[in-house]
Amino acid sequence: MSYIENANLKLDAMRDRDDIVVLAIESSCDETAVAITKGRQLLSNIIASQIEIHKRYGGVVPEIASRNHTLAINNTVKEALDKAGMTLDDVDCIAVTYGAGLLGALIVGVSYAKALAYATGKPLIGVNHIKGHIAANYLAKPDLEPPYLCLIASGGHTTIAYVKSLTEIEIKGATQDDACGEAFDKVARVLDLPYPGGPQIEKLAKEGKPTIDLPTPYKDKDTYDFSYSGIKTAVINYAHKCQQKGEQLNRADLACSFQEKVTDIMVNNTIRCAVDMGVDTVVIAGGVGANSVLRAKMQQRAQSHNIQVFYPPLVLCTDNGAMIASQAYNMIKTGAKASDIDLDANASLKVWE
Ligand code: KG4
Ligand code: ZN
Questions:
Q1: How many angstroms does the Cα of residue 182 sit away from the middle of ligand 1?
Q2: What is the pLDDT tens value at each position of the chain, 353 positions in all?
Q3: Prediction pTM value
Q4: Looking at ligand 1, which residue's alpha carbon is closest to its atom 13?
Q5: Omega cis (within 30) before 255
Q6: Using a 6 Å CB cutoff, which residues line ligand 1?
């Protein structure tokens, strides 16, 4: 029997169980992350972050990220197994992010996962990174059930998705240029803050007031789409003008004004979409979802419309292996076939694929 025939037989035999053990690998950007879950329970979640390495370049350098994934992956897998008190024999299935992300970085995780699955004869599940971000919510709230509306706000995406089932989504709105995390990171650079910019801006904004007027994109347009390039340019122009006039730039006020503007837009679009669709549950996913102002505003705005809001704990918002394990579990439960040993990394995998 071929590897894939055997893998699919094994998957079929485990679908009815609610204690499936998944070992998941995530290497799409600058975190080498491995987690082990048993059903919806998180047993270990190890994240070898490269942030300190990339900080000196002001952002992620793809080639350096790939090299460091190669160095870290074996020990990260070992650590995740140790922390869960397990060996590979206890694992039912290997999951891996196969897209979207940096190609070289993805290839490290995909190659490792394929080798591990083939050597152990265990089924392999290729997972969409963005669907993983959404699935982090099932670990935080195991009784969460689709349909619901999800704001996905990360370094690469800003999307409002209608989550129809555990594996299907429909896009309601998306950024037409930069992703919001990308905008946080670029504005941080203007403010001389280190990478990654989101948490730094959040910290600095606490000392400021939203006194600086920034543009609202698509103000008169009936859309749930986003645009961040105009806001980003306005921030850059404001900083340059201050410099030209020899005025002291109030960095905290600029950080605060930027954060207020982008979180307002995300919350407005999401709640408006939920109200228009008659959806009563909104979920937040992705790295920018760690932003406390975004979380609080979403809760506050949702309340007046009787909409409930959920979001994962901070560690499950930014990239991690647990979210990939969670989505692999969803896929197994809904009848997904195993990925074959020719699974390829796909840098530009679409959110809905
Ligand atoms: O989801 P993620 O970890 O990686 C991608 O899939 O892109 O998101 C990373 C992004 C970065 O742009 C980072 O600046 C942003 O999430 N981020 C935040 C916060 N924490 C991380 N943005 C705003 N506020 C935060 N607290
Ligand atoms: Zn991510």
A1: 8
A2: 999 999 999 999 999 999 999 999 999 999 999 999 999 999 999 999 888 899 888 889 999 999 999 999 999 999 999 999 999 999 999 999 999 999 999 999 999 999 999 999 999 999 999 999 999 999 999 999 999 999 999 999 999 999 999 999 999 999 999 999 999 999 999 999 999 999 999 999 999 999 999 999 998 899 999 999 999 999 999 999 999 999 999 999 999 999 999 999 999 999 999 999 999 999 999 999 999 999 999 999 999 999 999 999 999 999 999 999 999 999 999 999 999 999 999 999 999 89
A3: 0.96
A4: 198
A5: no
A6: 29, 154-156, 181, 184-185, 196-199, 202, 286-288, 290-291, 318-319
CA dist 154 and 158 (Å) reads 6
Residue length of the chain: 353
DSSP labels for 20-60? -EEEEEE-SSSEEEEEEEETTEEEEEEEEE-HHHHHTTTS-
Ramachandran area for residue 121 (φ above 0: left; ψ -120 to 50: alpha; else beta): left
SS3 of residue 163 by DSSP? strand
E-strand stretches of the chain: 21-26, 31-38, 41-49, 93-99, 124-128, 148-153, 158-163, 169-174, 281-285, 308-310
User: How many CB atoms neighbour CB 308 within 10 A?
Assistant: 12
- Is the Cβ–Cβ distance between 70 and 106 less than 8 Å? no
What CA–CA distance (Å, rounded) separates 73 from 158?
Answer: 29
CA-to-CA distance for 211 and 96, rounded, in angstroms? 45
CA distances from 326 to 46, 94, 111, 167 (A): 15, 12, 21, 11
Residue-wise burial string across 147-167, b where 16 or more C-beta atoms lie within 10 A, e elsewhere:
ebbbbbbbbbbbbbbbbeebb
> What's the distance, Cα to Cα, between the start and end of the chain in Å?
30
